[in-house]
Amino acid sequence: VGWRLDEVVQKIRGPKGSQIRLEVQAGDDAPHREIVLIRDRVQLEEQSAKSEVVEAGPNGEKIGIITIPTFYSDFTAKQAGDPNYRSTTRDVKQLLEELSEQEIEGVVVDLRNNGGGSLQEAYELFGLFIPRGPVVQIQSAGGRTDVRGDRDPSISWEGPMSVLVNRLSASASEIFAGAVQDYGRGLVIGSQTFGKGTVQALLPVNEGQLKLTIAKFYRISGQSTQHQGVIPDIQFPSAFDPTEIGESALDTALPWDQIRSLRYRPIDTPQARLAQLIDRHQARIATDPDFKALLKRTERALELSGETGISLHLETRIQEREANNQALLDIENMRRESLGLETAQSISELEAAAKEDDVSSDASLMESARILLDEIQINRRLAGL
C-alpha cells in the first residue's frame, strides 16, 4: 500500500528461473492467498487468441468459439520487418481458417474480461468479418474527427457470428462489439460493457508523468462508448455491480454523448429476430442446471458486494466465510444433482474440480452458442431452407 507501480515491478522482477512468493489480499473477507511464481520471460502466446469447437444443438451442431483475452500486436517484430510477427488479427484469421474446415455453423467471439489493447487490431479484426467500411471515429479535444476502418475487401468469415461481452470488456473490445452491432453483422450477448471510451496520453513532468485525456471514441452510429459502454442485444446477469465497476462508477468520468453518424451499409438486421430469440433463450435457461446455478452465484456475489460492513471479530468473520462457502457449495451441488453427477463435499474440492472444467461447463459461453444456433435456424426457416 502506498508504493508506486514501478517500485512494485522492481520488487517482482528478478533472475530468470528464480522463485517469488506473492501474498494476495482479496477485496472481500476471503482469506489471504499465497501465489508462487517462477520468473521467466513473458510470452505473447499466453495472451493470444484461442479457438475451440462446442456442440450447441441436440443433433451435434457445432459452433466455433474464439476467445480473445486482449488486442495485441508484436510491434517490435513488426518494426523489425519480421513477416511472421504475431497480432490478434493475424492469429484470428488463422483460427477462422482452421474452424472453417471443421464444418461449424457459426462463430462466437468471446471478449469477456478483455480490457482492450491495440486500437488498430480492433478495427482490423472486425475487417475479417466485413468487405470494407468505417469501424470507429476518434474525436480530439479540439473537435477534429478521424475515421478508422477496414480497406481490405477480403473476408475471412462470411457466416453467422455473435460477440460475448461482460462488464470487464473495455476500450478496444467495445469498439469491436459496437461495430458488430451497428453493422448488424451479429448479435452482442452478455452484460453491459465497461464504458471506457476515452484516449489518454502521458506527459512527462518532474518526478513522474501526467496522464491526460485527449480524445474520445465514437461508434460509426455516432454514439460514444464512454460511460454507457455497449448494451447487449440479449443480456445475461452480471456479478459486477455497475455502481462499483466501470466508468459510470467514477465520480469524474466524462459523460456519454453523441456526434454525427457516418455513412455505412448495414449487412443485416439480426435485432429483427430478437423477440423469437429471447423467447427461446428464456425457455431454455428456465430448465438449464448450469445457467440456473450461474444465476444463483450471481445473486450471491451481488448480495455480498452490497454489504457495507464487515466484522472485526475473528470468530464472526470465520463463521461468515464458512457460511458463504457453504452457500456456494449448495449451489454447485444443486447443479450436480440436476445433471446426475456426484456431489462435492467441500469448497476446496470444488476449486480443484474447477481447474479441470472445459468450455462446456461455462454456462454463459454455452448459452451464447445456443442463441447463435437459434438465430441460424430461424434464418433458415425464414429463407425456406
Can you describe this structure?
The termini are far apart. The chain has ten helices and twelve strands. Among the domains are: 5-38, no CATH class; 44-271, Alpha-Beta Complex (2-enoyl-CoA Hydratase, Chain A, domain 1), CATH 3.90.226. The strands form three sheets. Strands 3-4-5-8-9-12 form a six-stranded mixed β-sheet, with helices on both faces. Helix 4 packs parallel to helix 5. The mean pLDDT is 92. The chain is α/β, with parallel strands linked by helices and 385 residues long. Helices cover 33% and strands 19% of the residues.
Q: Write out the CATH superfamily name of the domain at 44-271.
A: 2-enoyl-CoA Hydratase, Chain A, domain 1
> What's the level 1 CATH class of the domain at 44-271?
Alpha Beta
The overall average pLDDT, rounded, is 92
Helix fraction by DSSP (H/I, runs of at least 4): 25-40%
How many angstroms does the end-to-end distance come to? 62 Å
CATH architecture identity of the domain at 44-271: Alpha-Beta Complex
User: SSE order in H/E notation?
Assistant: HEEEEHHEHEEEHEEEEHHHHH
Strand content: 15-25%
Main-sheet strand order equals 3-4-5-8-9-12
Please count the beta strands (DSSP E, at least 2 residues each). Answer: 12
Radius of gyration: 23 Å
CATH topology of the domain at 44-271: 2-enoyl-CoA Hydratase, Chain A, domain 1
Strand-pairing-aware structural class:
alpha/beta
**Rough outline:** globular
Number of helices: 10
Largest sheet: 6 strands, mixed
Low-confidence stretches: none
List keywords for this structure.
385 residues; alpha/beta; six-stranded mixed beta sheet; four-stranded antiparallel beta sheet; 19% strand
